[in-house]
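Subject: Sanity check before I submit

Could someone independently write out the structure tokens for this chain? I want to compare against mine line by line before I put it in a report. The sequence has 367 residues.
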Amino acid sequence: MHVPFSYLDRQFADVDTYLTDVRALVRSGDLTLGRALGEFEARFAEHVGAPHAVGVGSGTDALILALKALGIGAGDEVITTPTTFVATVGAIVACGARPVFVDSEDGFVIDPALIERAITRRTKAIVPVHYTGNAADMPAIMAIAQRHGLKVVEDACQAVGASIDDRPVGSFGDAAAFSLHPLKNINVWGDGGVIVTRSQSLAAVLRLQRNHGLVSRDEVEVFGVNSRLDTLHAVIGNRLIATLPWITERRIANAQRLDAALADLGDDVRIPRRRAGVRHVYHLYVVRAARRDALVAHLNAEGVEAKIHYPIPMHLQPAARYLGHRAGDFPVAEADARSIVTLPAHQHLAEAEIDHVAASVRAFYGR
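---
Independent answer below. Compare away.
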């Protein structure tokens, strides 16, 4: 049996229905900042519980533009986690700021108990990452930010649909960034991103910044960039976003099935803590595994497309050498990087495929 990591061929098996929408858009000529984009932004905002959503060119741009709009720049420090994709840290650096790392807790997200000791007089913001679709502890993080007068930009690029006590991630901080990359839970046939915020004034600034700073065809209020979510991508998003509740429920069900099947493997496979009240949406289903590399090779041989996200934490990447970190600085993140494995658990897998994933893992450990 072949159990794929990518699900795009299954997700878009009904491609002709999408192409009907695309043909209508092309005939309309409404290709830049078009009506479909406004519709998608409104729908997205409703899903994530924020009044304003601004479509931009990528999840990375969403982070950069949000940080810049909040005044983050040269000489500032921004606290984040080394357990993330490079875009989080790259966005901080792109603003001219210095990333300051804080180690993870058991669920691959930033440990709020360690944040305050990393705050200095230069600290201006915190960027918690809802990594793998798990929600960072936003109530604790927001309390810290309020005590120290810090901005908060949630990196929710992997976590559309996640929540804490029924409050959606992305609705806690000053702003939040989401990604619409092809392998995200909601995708748009290419790169795309969304910034959400509760602030009308911040949303207005972001709309200016993503479109060259233009208030009209001929008048430039500020110098911005070209980072508009294409109307073509919004057309795809409008059709797909209606299925987000189903996508989320299927991913949760598949993850719970894997949790149950792997729960008795002890130190061979360690399932991260599932915090009460957190709705984890499992953009990635990640566990810690003994003899990880051998396990991945075994799974691939069994037709299971297991992956590693990611084997080198951000503070030990060559690009981060100038920050002066060494192995041992963030022991949880480093131990995770040596042991984590991602198993297929997406919404288009049948129960038999999930069971094959679990059986293949169990067979590797002689169970």
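---
OP: Matches mine. For the report I'm noting this point. Residues 292 and 339 are 6 Å apart (CA to CA).
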